[in-house]
Sequence to fold (158 residues):
Amino acid sequence: MRRGFNLLTGGFGVPIERMGEFRRQFDRLVGEMEPARVPQVGVQRAVYVTDNAADARAAAEEARWNMRVTLSLRNHYERVERGRAVAVGAPKEPDTDDLLDRFLVIGTPDTVIRQIRRVQETVGITHFNCSFWFGDIEHPRIMRSMELFARDVLPAFS
Fold:
């Protein structure tokens, strides 16, 4: 904070309400330091927009792969075979419904809008960074998701 940097947080494996806890702790520490300028806070999340519930669930499973690799590396239980990271499941991994509800921003345009607003309210962000590619989602699906995001989600935040 002494140098005036802002904060970008997120990450696979962290539920939205936990990010809210981080924010409250951050605000407490900022208040103790009394900086000249209060840092802005942004969040990065996996984002996938679709008009199909089955496609949303499939995208959540692709995000699960990233979450498994990220958490295994972060928590030192990773596995690498032939130079490639292997997705190692965590002992207490959320099910797909929990992933979609608390960890990811994936679903119909209305669902994605609702999830981003939830992140805004829970974490108090000034910026939202979308990670549109994760797992092994094919390029045409990613492009379609980005088109839906631009057409149907982004206007809700302008």
